[in-house]
Structure formats: structure tokens, C-alpha cells
Amino acid sequence: MNKINIALLGLGNVGRGVWEILQTNKEEIRERSGYDIEVSKILVRDINKRRDIDVPKGILTTEPEEIFNDESIKIVIEVIGGVDPAKDYMIKAMQSKKHVVTANKLAIATCGSELIKTAKEEEVRFCYEASVAGGIPIIHGLNESLTANKIEQIMGIINGTTNYILTKMYLDNMSFGEALKEAQEKGYAEADPTSDVDGYDAVYKLSILTYLAFGKKISVDSIYREGIRNIEAIDIEYAKEFGYVIKLLAIVKDVNNVLELRVHPTMVPARHPLASVNDSFNAIFIKGNAVGDLMMYGRGAGDLPTGSAVVGDIISILRNDTDPIFKLEGSKSGNLKQINSMENTKSGYYIRITVKDEPGVLGKISTILGQNNVSLLSVIQKGKGQEFVTLVFVTHKTLEGNIDKSIKDINLLSSVKKIENIIRVEKMEV
Amino acid sequence: MNKINIALLGLGNVGRGVWEILQTNKEEIRERSGYDIEVSKILVRDINKRRDIDVPKGILTTEPEEIFNDESIKIVIEVIGGVDPAKDYMIKAMQSKKHVVTANKLAIATCGSELIKTAKEEEVRFCYEASVAGGIPIIHGLNESLTANKIEQIMGIINGTTNYILTKMYLDNMSFGEALKEAQEKGYAEADPTSDVDGYDAVYKLSILTYLAFGKKISVDSIYREGIRNIEAIDIEYAKEFGYVIKLLAIVKDVNNVLELRVHPTMVPARHPLASVNDSFNAIFIKGNAVGDLMMYGRGAGDLPTGSAVVGDIISILRNDTDPIFKLEGSKSGNLKQINSMENTKSGYYIRITVKDEPGVLGKISTILGQNNVSLLSVIQKGKGQEFVTLVFVTHKTLEGNIDKSIKDINLLSSVKKIENIIRVEKMEV
């Protein structure tokens, strides 16, 4: 049996998951890779920190050079996260002719092409299945299984924190604040939940998926981003009534060779598979021009699921599965794919408005929508004989620009108190 | 740009899908494979048959030897189906040092190991992603992405015909007969629907999945098989009432190193992702000890989805992605995994019984269940003041043997007219 030494950079959540899988599934991994894998060094910040896993102290080190200079180490697993110093470590590892496996979404999203370029130059493997959607094999899927397809669009629930919160709001009728608090208590949300709740995490992951599926490198700043802070319990209730579920979707669509990219709350039909993705699960829904609809669902984070992807990449490297690197280098960017501006995107829209309970309000608003080419699918008015009443409109698919113009005009009506919320609706036609 | 010649055996549904994808996505395929792929020969039975695709007549042939003896042909795509003559053709192709890609579920299920053995001996590639679940990349998933896992169980909706029928019964309240008729009219079911409706198709696919996930070759005859013919509209209604959906599930579970394999209708919680898999879509739900729950959903059949998998395999071969053949040769069969008998499997059970509307019937039946260690979850009796009434029981998870014994005793009660139906219930605990 061949033996091979690998090193871990970092021993946090994912690092521990990788360690555990290498121990627990040693037999399977040996059979499938053809190698006895030994973790010979682990880079940590504090050798004496108390850890709840059984790692021999002798392999811990605080010196990255010990790893880069050790010729017996063939693969380096980067599970520190973030850009500094992880990116430099990965480059140094590759310059030392070591293959690299990473789970680092931030580094891939911001410096992915530099890392891939280094791998090509140094003729080593660079794998990052674990950087998007945890254990879900989406990168293998796009790079190796769906290669016969033109990808038309990808819609993903790719942030577990926000999905957990929205699930609690939907299934348990919690308010946003209550659901966030529970998520924090259970470890699904950080003390500062901004990155998740405001959609930054989803934007990073979407940029990686876009690069893989369309070959185009997108600056994360050019992606429209709207988190879930403005979703109220009442919106969840109305969605239920219309037969929809609210999810935070990351969307990339190829519309006549122009890419639309956006992250925002979206109403999804309750019968659609994406609607059944609950708690901290993730799902990525792809439309390819040959395969049609394809969805991958699973745990998007966590020590073991992410570790599953990391170790899967290690096995891939050991088996010499070809790395289709040449594909990832923007192989399709020849067809210049401009990013669509939001006003040119099309959606259905849910619009909740508080108005004075006066004659003709509904008519005025409907008229404005009609004048702006917005056609109505549903309307709900539940009058309670009070000064103000809530009007809820759901429109047919229309240009966001038409909605923007309608909203401007609606806001000028004296009977309109406030446009409380606007949520995009995806009818998910097959 | 490198050029390569390939040949198709067959030009039916899938063959046409492969042809179409090779034309439509020519650019993408060229970029991703590094080759200009030309179909230089196609084996058909009737050269002059009218076809609705644009295939040059010059490449059609009725002589398989023209393909096997043509040294310029490097890959042979078998899309005839069935065992004879497809299996022999594939072996001849491999003996002629050609790689083989197939969509042939029957051949893989019954002669898979012989075909794989031939590939190893001849040192050529043998790929069959398209043979299970159409375009869903389950074989790549199991062989390449989930390699760090011990697979614990797989549950699949892997027959589109029965899923279409059950969806119509559920969403449109049709009877089995009505739904079957509509399926036949729309081309989702054959004139003789036996293979699909009675579960044979699902059994073949399950045996392939089992071989891949557990390394154990299972005779299709040893798989418990129960189709959907006995599902009545009333069962669908009761399922709805309990919050369940009825699906035909193919199940393989590793229970303490013993494999359970079965295909049968199953009640699935309406909120579970498997429950949202509708119409002719397929889904495969995997539990791995690292990745946790993972589901792949998509089109399990059809010219383009199946073609997507075939062409994906062609690209794989051209890119030299290593074929983990060594894994598939029952690499784990060292741990002798006996097949569990059905009486040792555990499930919840839905039991619908017609009884005389007499005092004490419910009590007697409940007592019998209790005596056989079957604990009740729910009971519904909707009395209508008639001679007979329907009792519906849903049990907690119990051994099938306990249910068998209970049914024997219940049948002896004079007040029991008929045990109308028994359907297994999977609560899908995470």
C-alpha cells in the first residue's frame, strides 16, 4: 500500500472534520485512493490550546515553513479561511510543488484566478469543492458531469444561516428577530450575523458558481445584493396564502448572452423542490440546455459535510483524476457576457402597501401599474374598518424597471402611507 | 484542434439526443474536451427509415463490423438498450480497443461486472452514467465526489412513469387507472406498463446503485419488489390527511453491515424534499457518514437529459479523467454483506382495513398490534353509520415481522372484512 503525507493548515471546525473523516473512514479512503494517508503536520496558532479531538501534539506546528519545506508532504489542505494569510500560504505550498485543497470561499471568490494560474504554472492540482455549498458536489457536477451542457441558469439556496431563519419564520411563525436569536443560540448564526443575513456570503459563493458555469470572472461588488432583514412575519403569511415560500436565492441567468446576477429574497412556489429545502440545508438548482432541471441538495456547511468535500478532493488528486483547469480559466469569456442591470431583469413582484382606507385607492394603484406595463396576478385587501389597510399585489412577470417606475408614481399618491415591502417572485416554469 | 471519430450503436430516442447535443453544444464540448468530435458511423436496423433528425445517410450502416473494424473510431456509444445484441456489441467494441459509453440499464444490471472486467482487461474506458437516472450525475457523485464517505443508505425515486402516475393521483385526485391512461397518452408509460408499474425498472436501477455504493453485486431477483398497482385514490387521500405523500421508493440501507434492498410504495412526509419530486422527475437521496443527507434531483429519462449524461462521459474519456474502475469491482465485498430478509426491515406502516361496524373492533385490532410489539402513531375511523367502516392505522417504526404476525391475527377476527392495503411509512429522520 502506498503511503502519502499531507498537511493541514488550520484545525478549526473544518480541519477537525477532515481529521475525523480520515480516521473514521480510513478503510474506504485507502481502497478508493490507493493510498494510506497520513497527516504528518498541522499548522495551528497555539500548540497548547485545548482541543476536543485526539490529535498527537507532535504533529502540531506554528511554523508554516516547516510544512512548505517538507518534501515528504505532497498535499496541503488549507482550512484556515479568509484571505490573509491563507492565500499566501496556498501560493507558497504550490510553489513548493505541493497540491492544494481548500474550503476557502473568500479566497476563491476574490483571488481564485490567481490561485488557479499559480497551480497551472507550478503544474500542481488545486481543488476547492468545499468552498461552495459544503458537502454538495456542485463543483464536480459543473466541471465534470454537466460538461455537455450550456448552462442557462443557476438558482441557489447557498447560505445556511438565512435559510434556517426563514424556515423558522415559515414553519414556526417566528418574527425575524426571534428566528435570528434562535439561530445564534443554536450556532447557525454568528454574533455579528451581517455576512450571512445581509447576503455577502451568498454573493461570494455566487461569484464562484458563475465563474465555473459561465467562465466569467465577476467582481463581487457588481452583484445585486439584498439580504433578509426586511422580511416580516406578515410577508411569510401572505406568501403562504398565495402558495409560496420565501427563500434567499442566489441567481445567475444567461439571458441572450447577457449575465444577470443577483442575491435577494424570493417567493418560490410551495410545490417546487427549492421550497422544501429547510433549516440550514442548501440546494443548487441548475438549468442546462441538455440535462434540463437538475438540483443538488445537502448540507452546505458543518465540519463533516465540508470535510467530505475536502477529502473527496484529496482522493481525486491521489487517483490522478484530471483537473479540468483549462476549462476554468474563463474559457468562454470570449463571448463577452455583460452583466445585466437590475432594471432589465424580469420577475414577478409581491408588493405590500399600507394605504388610507379610502375609496379608489386600489383603483389608482392598479391603474399606475397598468400604465407601466405591469399586469396583476393577484390582489388581497383585508379591510378591517380601520384608518389604514394593507394592500398586497402579486404581479405577472415584468421588467424591474417597470416596477421601479410604478413605485415612484405610487409613492406620490396621497392615500399611500408606505410601501412596506417588495419581494421578487419566481414562478419556476419548467 | 484534435479531431476524434466516434460511433453510435442505435439511433432511437437517446441516440437522437446524443446527436442533437453534439451539434447544438459543439462549441462548449470542443472547449471542454479539447476535441472536435465527429460521429463517423451510426449503426441502425433500417437505413431508409424516415427520421426526423438531420443525419447524413452516408454515415448510417447496418453492419456492426464496419464499426468494430474501423480503427479511426475511438469511442463507441451504445444506445440500443437491452442485453442482446447490445452486450456483445459492447464487448466486441472493447476488444477492438475502443472505449465504450452506454445508457443501458438492463445490461449494466445483469452483466455489469462482465463488461467492467472486459474494460479492465482491454485497458479501455467503460462509462455508464446514463444508465441510472438519466441526466442526474449520480454515478459521478458516488464514484468521484462522495469517495470520502461510508454510504449508509440510498433512497430513490428512480422510475419516471410511476412518479408521473402517483403525482397525478396526488395533485389531480385521479384514480390509478385514470392516471395510468393519461401517462400512456402522454408517452410517460408504455402500452404494456408492467416493467415500470410493477417496479422491475426500479429494481434494475437499484441493483446498479447498490453495486456502486456498497461494492456488492446483487441479483435482481433477491430484491423485494412491490409496484404501485394497489395504490388507491383513498390511500392518497389518507396520506394527505396524515401529512404524507406516496412515492415508489427504491431503498438500500446498510444496517450493521447487512444490506436491506427493497422497492415499494412508501409514504414520505410532505415537507421532505423527496415529496416535492413530481411528474416524471427522479431523485436520489443519499446518506453518507460524512456528507450527511445529499439529494440529487432531475430528469431521469428523455432524449436530452440522458444524452447529457452520455456526452458528459464522452468528454470525461477525452479528458482522460481517471476511471475508478478498481473501486467498482466489489472493492468492499470483503465485508460480506448479506441481504436482509424483509421481516427484519423496520418501517412505519399504514394499514387500511374494512371492518364490520361493531363494538370493540378497534380495540381488538389495537390489542393484537400491541401484543406484537407494534405501537400506534395514528388512528382514523370515519364512521358513516353503515354496515362496514374503514379503519386506518399508522404505526411507529417496527419490524416488518411484527406486522406480518399482526396481520395474520387480525385476519382471523370475524369482524374484519378485508385488509385493504398496507403501505410502508418512512419518517425520514435526519
UniProtKB/TrEMBL annotation, chains A, B:
EC number(s) per entry: 1.1.1.3
Catalyses: L-homoserine + NADP(+) = L-aspartate 4-semialdehyde + NADPH + H(+)
Which residues does the record give as NADPH binding sites? K105
Q: Does the keyword Oxidoreductase apply?
A: yes
What terms describe the molecular function in GO for this protein?
A: homoserine dehydrogenase activity; metal ion binding; NADP binding
Identify the cofactor(s): a metal cation
Transmembrane ranges?
none
Q: In which pathway does it act?
A: Amino-acid biosynthesis; L-threonine biosynthesis; L-threonine from L-aspartate: step 3/5; Amino-acid biosynthesis; L-methionine biosynthesis via de novo pathway; L-homoserine from L-aspartate: step 3/3
Which InterPro entries does this UniProt record tie to the protein? ACT-like_dom_sf (IPR045865), ACT_dom (IPR002912), Asp/hSer_DH_NAD-bd (IPR005106), HDH (IPR016204), HDH_cat (IPR001342), HDH_CS (IPR019811), NAD(P)-bd_dom_sf (IPR036291)
> What biological-process GO terms show up in the record?
methionine biosynthetic process; threonine biosynthetic process
Q: Does the keyword rRNA-binding apply?
A: no
CDD domains registered for this protein in UniProt: ACT_HSDH-Hom
Q: Which protein family is named in the record?
A: Belongs to the homoserine dehydrogenase family.
PANTHER family, alphabetized: HOMOSERINE DEHYDROGENASE
Q: Can you say what this protein is called?
A: Homoserine dehydrogenase
